[in-house]
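Reviewers of the previous submission asked for a worked example of the structure-prediction workflow described in the proposal, so we include one complete record here. The input consisted solely of the amino acid sequence. No template or homolog information was supplied to the procedure at any stage.
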Amino acid sequence: MTEHIAAKRLKITPPLIGTHNGHFHADEALAVYLLRLLPAYNPSNLVRTRDPALLSTCHTVVDVGGEYAPETNRYDHHQRTFDATFPSHATKLSSAGLIYLHFGKAIIAQRLSLPESDSDVGLLHEKLYDDYVEALDANDNGISVYDSADTAKLNKRFKDSGVTLGSLVSDLNHDWSESSPLNDKVKDKGTPEQVQEEEDRRFLEASRLMGTSFLRKLDDYYYAWLPARNLVYRAYEKRQEYDEKGRILVLEKGAPWKDHLYTLEAEHASQGKVLYVLYPETPREDSKWRIQAVSVEKDSFESRKALPEAWKGVRDEALDGVTGIEGCVFVHASGFIGGNKTFKGALMMAQKSVEI
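From that input alone, the workflow returned the following structure tokens.
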């Protein structure tokens, strides 16, 4: 009887997740959040320590301990022998990538109420790693986006460090207010327990920041990016209805189209490039329409063919006069985008632009 009661208690005891204390980073902040999305870890307790004896009592340990052993739920990447990567990628994994590698599909399937074997789950698993998790892995492992030899002669036009998720997490490690135990200049920091309590509170804030941004990305990809795939595919098949060389793509509605267009063009490399994409601003029948120049590549600001020089920065009736097309609304000063009151007018702008 006693053994039976003890077994029942063991089953309902929340698992203990361990990670290191001290300065925290985006990778373990996300790793802990991802684990806690799973039923097996919800609820779960968290301990932040480097004490091997205490870590040995944990059900799962991430980013500390010097061991990568999925069979015993150990997910560290700092040991010299570690070289694991995500399939078909070269970037060494951090704790975020390790947890995502092993549990990512289950997390995605649960969030979207899909079977883990669903093809959309596999597609999103790859997409989220490419667009979200890999950058965290690279940052934590000190891997640059570019080889230094390739950028040695490049001069930056401006400072582009910007604000990143990693930098926001880093900011949470510090607090310069006079009452904070994390301020090194404060003489009376309180007890070591109070300092650790504040540090742990900041870590949980960082974990929520990383986790909620991950879920927003997942939701956006499922509810917007995936449906856009079929939309762009249909438009790509019909593009020669508007230009015999297929240089104009007309979407039924606004959608995140870039990824899908570049993928299609890579699959049909011999068929030429799309120069302009047209789409309505709103779902209303009387919606205004946009004409957008396709960039040279996904993250480039350089257009394959900007809208004509004479149109740039001109608006309304003045633009009507310059283009010879009624209903013009604007063309951006850089020529990457413009608008017209009707689909017919936007199409005429595109058709005239491809020939200028």
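Confidence is low (pLDDT under 50) at residues 1-10. We consider this example representative of the routine output the project will generate in years two and three.
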